[in-house]
């Protein structure tokens, strides 16, 4: 996919309902939580925001997805190739969600670790093991 200026740039990467607030005074949304921002295709933000609709193959979820895409296209262009790439963007998100805790576990041996660290490491390891199993499934 080409990284053309109109399709690629800095994205939020965590557009979830708890990160967007409506400002009554201005009639505009406000967005918080930019710690996951990255350079990527703009369609990645759409795929991340629509995770539930992309994972659920029900007619209702498909209708919600199509309504969002229509609304998005009303404001800015969105190439059909980008819409077709949503599953690839979701796969990237899964791999990224796997790599981050894996990297944290890599250097987690501390001489004077707090008691809670062992429990956290166990939870992260279990999460990574579950993710490994999910990667074996076709996408």
UniProtKB/TrEMBL annotation:
The Aminoglycoside phosphotransferase domain sits at: 3-74
User: Which Gene Ontology molecular-function terms are recorded?
Assistant: amino acid kinase activity
Q: SUPFAM superfamilies annotated for this entry?
A: Protein kinase-like (PK-like)
Superkingdom of this protein's organism: Bacteria
Gene3D superfamilies attached to this UniProt entry: 3.90.1200.10
The entry assigns this protein to a family as follows: Belongs to the pseudomonas-type ThrB family.
Q: What is this protein called?
A: Aminoglycoside phosphotransferase domain-containing protein
Q: Which organism is it from?
A: Paenibacillus elgii
